[in-house]
Every structure is written in structure tokens, then in C-alpha cells.
Amino acid sequence: MPGAPGAEALHAACAARGLGPALIPDVVRYLQLLERWNRVHNLTAVKGAEAMVDRHVLDSLSVLPWLQGRNVLDVGSGAGLPGLVLALADRSREYLLLDAAAKRVRFLRAAIAELGLGHVDTVHGRVEDLHPDPGFATVVSRAFAAPPEFVRLAGHCLAPGGRMLAMLGQAAATEAALPPGWSYRSVEPVRIPGSQASRHIAVIERESA
Question: What pLDDT sits at residue 1?
């Protein structure tokens, strides 16, 4: 396939962007698997080693400092972004990757098995139908919905004292009011190495009674 990233190109792109040497082999295996599945299932429009590392891996890892607690729910995980990438770098938490598209969940299951990620699970369904007890310490989304809709659809999945993380482009997306009982704790600008694109993380919490 013309333009498909090979292992050497992916390894070089990861190293050039400062990924730790222990993480690079798993990232390369993940991206190669994604590229193979993408030929048939159209999981991502991103092509080329550098673009895949920048727009998939580094963008996903940017939210890592804001995770809290022992378990993380990734809503609308798609090809595992950010949840699967986070799980490659973070073995201390349990991750659940949720998506409504069966083909994406099949890919996620294949990736989890191939990469040996025993701390990761995936479920096919809509977040409105997920009813975890007691909930997740962190609920994260990337390109799933605007913050108010994210809270409306997924807020019930959050454990007491937890936080929701909405990965955004422009900070203006946080100007829309959240549902009653919720507030922005902060809106954090993040920088992706080598990228000039505007990226922000909205940290959302329940308001104290």
C-alpha cells in the first residue's frame, strides 16, 4: 500500500519525538496493526508514520497527567484513541474502551490480545446504556461530543470524586454551559511536540453539594 508506514519509519518517528525506548516497540506494533486493519475497515484517515505518531500517539498521551484513580473509561474510543495508547504507557490502571461501532470494537479486541494488555477491556455499546457501579475515577473522551453533551451522556459513569476529561481543539468549546451540577475545574492548554495545532483538556467535575 503506497504511503503505508513500515516498522523502521514508525520507530524513527517515535524516537524523534522523544517517546521512551521501552514504549516504542508497543507503539510500533499498535500502529502497524491499525494500518493493516485500516486497509479494510477504514478506522482512520491518518496516513504516514509521522502523522500517525503525532495525531494518534502524542495527542492521546497528552491527557496522561490529568488521569486520576484506579480505573479509566474511554468513551467513543474508536481505534483506541486515547484509551489504548494511554494503556500502553500506563500499566497501573484498568481501562475500559467503549465504542458503538462493531468494527472498531473488533479491532480493539484484536489489539488488546496482540499487545497482551491484561489491564484493558472493551465493550460494544452506547455510553447511555453503560451502568457501572460504583463508576470510574476518570472518564475521558476525544472527539466524542462537545463538553455539555459529553457530561449529559456519560456523567452517570463517573464515580464519586471522579473527573471527566474532554480532549478539545479550541478552548472556545468550553464556553457552552454544562448541565446543572457540573463545572469546569480547569481548561488546560497542551502542546503536542512538533505541532502548532491548538489543543486543550477540559477538566470537569461535579459541583459540591
Answer: 39
State the pTM of this model. Answer: 0.93
The verdict on residue 1 lying in a domain is no
Question: Which residues, in sequence order, are CB contacts of 192 under 8 Å at separation 6+?
Answer: 54, 58, 59, 62, 199
For residue 149, give the CATH number of its domain.
Answer: 3.40.50.150
User: Residue 4: what pLDDT?
Assistant: 53
Residue 45's pLDDT is what? 82
Number of domains in the chain: 1
Q: Which residues of 19-36 are buried (b: 16+ CB within 10 A; e: fewer)?
A: beeeebebbbbbbbbbbe
pLDDT-derived band at 198, boundaries 50, 70, 90: confident
Q: How far is 73 from 96, CA to CA, in rounded Å? A: 5
The answer to whether 49 touches 13, Cβ cutoff 8 Å, is: yes
Which of 47, 45, 54, 123 is CA-nearest to residue 83? 123
> How far lies 1's CA from each of 4, 6, 13, 35, in Å?
6, 10, 19, 10
Q: What is the pLDDT of residues 62-121, one digit of tens each?
A: 999 999 999 999 999 999 999 999 999 999 999 999 999 999 999 999 999 999 999 999
Residue 2 lies in a domain: no
